[in-house]
Predict the structure.
Amino acid sequence: MPAPTFLVADDHPLFRTALIQVLRERFAQMRTVEAASAATLGTALQEHPELELVLLDLAMPGARGFSSLLHVRGEYPEIPVVVVSSNEHPRVIRRAQQFGAAGFIPKSAPAEDMALAIETVLDGGSWFPPMAAERSEADAALAAKLAQLTPQQFRVLLCIADGLLNKQIAHELGLAENTVKVHVTAILKKLECYSRTQAAVLVKSLEPESTA
């Protein structure tokens, strides 16, 4: 059996090192790929089709709340994603599950629990801490709407949320301005939004609750 390859996406080098150490103790032959931002996460996914699991921190540069999770699930649905986060708010855990994560590991979890969670997901299961938050129909509806977007449309949506104009989005993504215009029209229709501002507010709702 070939050695599994894991993608560890976190902007803190020390935590990436610690998590890789946990993996190495349980999966001696495994290989790891690292990412420290939403952009390097996307590059790593493109360059490593052999990936079997993504371990994802939600709070990375370039990410908007759950946007990286939604991006990976939309573009690479065959690769399971385990969220590894310091934000243990019950609704954050529940939303991660509703937005397609196969597991959620609090950063405060013991190494043994981390290893068990990863093994469970690799075996086709799921692993989440006990959750007090109820399933949200609004989140389910939002996830269903966002799932209709193509990966490129999702990138355009994040640019809209950052307040960029079509011309700026075209420059940012290397697209023709007319192509961006077509994407924006399709995005607003799929999300049932009447304006760019309404779409931006929808993206804002992807931000996780504060742990405070």
Residues 13-26 form the longest helix (14 residues). The chain has two domains: 5-122, 148-204.
